[in-house]
């Protein structure tokens, strides 16, 4: 019997056909999902507590600082030296005697509600009349008295003198020349300052007579130790992985060959 094995192209074509013919079928959701409970289902809406108003941190700091100042003032006042004021000794000759309180008898007296509680309508009318009289007095116009003019004289010496008219020239003939002179002076001063700045002034060579700089070796901050690069470790791991893949590939080929032999033997 002849055993026909599929080629790589035939396998790929079969996989493509299976992928095209595949249809997605969703499973129905469980009923317990829609039944709200403690363990599963849609959770119930939680009612949140209302937010409580709180004072901001700036006001709290002010209150704390004020309380601290008041406490400090109390401490300073308490730390002050207090003078002891002792009470005087009692007079031992005078003996305290308990006297009985005299019981007063209430005497009945005649009274009437007419004198105590007057008619409220009449009281209201009287109060309204008093308020109207006060308003009339406040509406009355009261002018202030005039100042006394007798003996008052105007001091004419305080008045300022008038401005005197003098001739003047708005346009000066030499104004432009004066500006040019000032501008030339400023330019000359700037050039002199720049020349002074450009002049080379050598400093005294202290470095020639001093000892050269020699760096000191300090073992506290740098220590030479052996280390392994991360790339080397990854390279070793990759080699192991490739070896394992190769072993798996060899094992699969051996199994295929063994299965083919069994099929040939059974058919024979």
Mean pLDDT: 79
Radius of gyration: 59 Å
Portion of residues in beta strands equals under 5%
Low-confidence stretches: none
Largest sheet entry: none
Structural class: mainly alpha
SS field, number of helical segments: 6
Calculate the terminal CA-CA distance, rounded to whole Å: 7 Å
Please give the share of residues in helix. 40-55%
Structural notes for this entry:
This protein has helices at about 10-20, 55-80, 115, 120-140, 175-200, 230-265. With about 270 residues, it is mainly alpha-helical. The longest helix is centred in the last third of the chain and has 38 residues, at about 230-265. The mean pLDDT is about 80.
Concise summary:
With 268 residues, the protein is mostly helical.
Entry keywords:
mainly alpha; 0% strand; 46% helix; 268 residues; 6 helices
Helix and strand topology:
Layout: H1 8-21, H2 57-79, H3 113-116, H4 120-139, H5 175-198, H6 230-267
